[in-house]
Amino acid sequence: MKKLLLPLFVAALALAFKGEDKPAYQLFTADGKKTSYSKLLAEAQKADIVLFGELHDNPIAHWLELEITKDLYKTWGATTVLGAEMFEADNQAGLNMYLEGKIADTSLSKVVRLWPNYETDYRPLVDFAKEKKIPFIATNTPRKYANIVYRKGFDALNELPDSVKRWFAPLPIPYDSNERAYKEIFENSGGHGGQNLPKSQALKDATMGWNIMQNWAPGKHFIHYQGSYHSDNRSGITWYLNHYALEKGTGNAPARPKILVISSTLQGQIGTLNKEDNGKGDFILCIPESMTRTY
Fold it and tell me: Can you tell me the distance from the alpha carbon of 241 to that of 211, in angstroms, rounded to the nearest whole number?
């Protein structure tokens, strides 16, 4: 009897000390229901434009960006186009030189302003584009023009030389102060700086939306990487994509793309999605707050 009890005791002890699984992320649908990567991929494959809203210093978000890009490329192939907030429009020529193999990776930082976490977080995407000969679009406006708007407003852009106006969306910049993204920026800042603070954000969103639409057409598929706040709640870039899509369309056949938004968020636990994150994206990538940061 003792011989039988000992193995049972050991087994019970092992179960008692067995820790719970520690998943690195959990995906949710817009209404807060748990879902899977395979379902995210299946929906993304149906989209024309995928906006991947990341957390800039989060390794899980960057890893999943690369994974879904690889998997979507398997379906989309040569119709795939990539683009990112992290590259500013006036650096497109330098980025193209690298993608075309005309300069080595050691020279890229001399012709392109790279984010500090480029090597760990964005180089894998750029190198994948280089390997597969995928266009990679520098969609963002140079920071200095957003700073001009923050200090002086949209009208100050009219005073700039025509030669630099190609680095941001065409003037006048459409703007709705009641659009959720800009209303929240205004309210969270306590109104400091008036509308110029949200307008500086809007210039970035407008330029990214404009450059995406300039490099997308029916039959193409665009994956764009940006901070989640640029696309959460289908605001920001999404608002501008819809605006410029109507401008690009003709007659009764506007070139309105099907847009899928992925949002990223941190939580202390990832078993259930916090209600305030419902609706931030068509899919929400939920990551533990304890996850290691890349910088």
Answer: 9
